[in-house]
Amino acid sequence: MKHLRLSVLALSTAVAALIATSTAAAAEYPAKPINVIVPWGAGGDSDLTTRLWADAMEQELGKPVVVINKAGGGGVIGTTFVANSKKDGYTLVNAGLSNVQVTPNFSKTPYDIDSFEPVVKLSSVPFGILVPANSPYKTFQEFIDAAKAGTLTQGSWGAASSGTVLASIVADQAGYTVKYVHGNTTAESMVDLIGGHIDSAVSFPPAFGPHVKSGRARLLVLNQAMDEYPGVPTFADFGIKGSFEGWSGIYAPKGTPKEVIDTLIAASTKAMAKPDVQAAYANIGANVDVRSGDAWIRETRETYDLMKDAAAKMKQ
């Protein structure tokens, strides 16, 4: 019995020491560089929005915030890497509609929404459909009519990506079908589009903006009106219902200490409020939309559940 009491005491002491060490580490956070995994290739909307945040966070935290592209599997490889990383706040992931809400429901992944601690939403971006500048389709109605009459190709970034899912919802409501051509990123799809390899593409302003402004691509329709693209109609103008909003945020592995999450939220809120940071986001066509806390987390869960229902219906 004496040995048992000693063993219990030793175990309790070890646990207390571990908790104290973890608490002290969280209090000192960050004590070294923070890695942020973007589970897509360079140049896409997620990559651009994350890099702007990382640059601003370095100034707030006084430590390097390093963006690492770990593409593959429609965002699954990089996202899984973070889900399995140490829960210390030094390995984070760019989270968004595709990798944390759509893909886990439309394909088998080693993670789901419960594998992470939501930290902060940074920005949102409208969803659009584009054609090359030399396309015969001058309007979205002409595109719809052509897609109903024959097979048109459309670029996206993965069979279970948000782009393909949202595009499928639009096509279903408008009554047409397309053949999807999957790249690794929105940027890659836009390269295929302006190169004349596909008839159309779905994308977000950070990726399509430079091509539209330079005249290499034509924007046919958006999910919401934008001052930067006057005269471009919205899906609602064609009777298509839905928000179709892409978003970019930061998640940490499940079990990351609350003190670390709170530090990241506080620093992000300050960083994203700076006029130069907001101007940088506006320059790439992203809307600064900083959100955190229980209400936002509930919303992410609701969208996750909606996508789960949509996936179940598509499998019937």
Give structural notes:
This protein folds into two domains: 33-124 and 245-315, Bordetella uptake gene, domain 1 (D-Maltodextrin-Binding Protein, domain 2, 3-Layer(aba) Sandwich); 128-238, D-Maltodextrin-Binding Protein, domain 2 (3-Layer(aba) Sandwich), CATH 3.40.190.10. 47% of the residues lie in helices and 20% in strands. It has helices spanning 2-27, 45-61, 76-83, 97-106, 140-149, 162-174, 186-194, 205-213, 258-272, 275-283, 294-315; strands spanning 34-38, 65-69, 91-96, 116-125, 128-132, 153-156, 179-182, 200-203, 217-222, 246-253, 287-291. The strands form two sheets. Strands 2-1-3-10-4-11 form a six-stranded mixed β-sheet, with helices on both faces. Strands 7-6-8-5-9 form a five-stranded mixed β-sheet, with helices on both faces. The termini are far apart.
